[in-house]
Amino acid sequence: MSIIYSQIIVYILVVVVTSAIVGFLSERPTEKNIEGFTGSDENIEALNGEMSEKVSNMEDSLHVTKYKKDYENTITYGKDYFNSMTVATLFDFSTIIKEQRDKEKTEKSLTDLAKKLGALHQGSQALKNTQL
């Protein structure tokens, strides 16, 4: 009988010690991972120089000056595409008019149409604000 009592006491001690260790380890402050960079007065010049170099390297790799006319044409064609898709989307009104008796379908169709028009407008605005 004393063996059973001693095993129970050892088991309780193991559980108490284990929970104390786990509790202690979970209370320790953890190291925060900082994403990005930390700017200070000492490294701001180096960071600014590095960013300028990366921007100029990107412009060089895109050959912006060499292919500027091609990029402008692509932007123009993109604007035309978004405008024509906006006009094409307006033809969805015909299905909405046909299904006016069903209120849920009408509301869903109007919501879908508004989402399409909003996305097309945002795409058109993004191209309009693109500068080379």
Count of DSSP E strands?
0
SS field, number of helical segments? 5
Structural class: mainly alpha
% residues in beta strands? under 5%
Average of pLDDT: 78
Spans of at least 5 consecutive residues with low confidence: none
Question: Helical content, roughly?
Answer: over 70%
Listing every helix as H and every strand as E from the N terminus to the C terminus, the arrangement reads HHHHH
Report the sheet with the most strands, covering strand number, pairing sense and barrel closure. Answer: none
**How does the overall form come out from the CA principal axes?**
flat
Task: Give a written overview of the molecule.
Helix content is 76%, strand content 0%. The protein has 132 residues and is mostly helical. It has a domain at 64-132. Helix 3 runs antiparallel to helix 5. The radius of gyration is 32 Å and the shape is flat.
